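On to my pick:
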Amino acid sequence: MDKFETYHNTNIAGRKIKLDFVGPLQPGDHIYIILSDPILYEHHGIYIGNNRVIHFQNFIVQTHIATFCDDHVIRKRKSTSNYEHPTNPPEYEDFAREDVVARA
């Protein structure tokens, strides 16, 4: 852990979960954990509400957030949906949260 990182602990369904952000998860949030066994990589998922995450694990699965993180720190991708380009909209725009959940 980087000495400058601060983690926030929360309790979900009786399990302590570490977050690298402040505030609640919202349906449609793009979350991930960093794993290092056997190699360093990021495992991503979409939070869909009610402590559930959709992610790929040999096939697409829906699991409890505590199972998804497996005692690793949950990180959240920053949204660019409020991004304002000075002349043109960006080529890639985020979907609305409801659309992210529906597409997952």
Summary: The chain has one domain: 1-78. The longest strand covers residues 41-49.
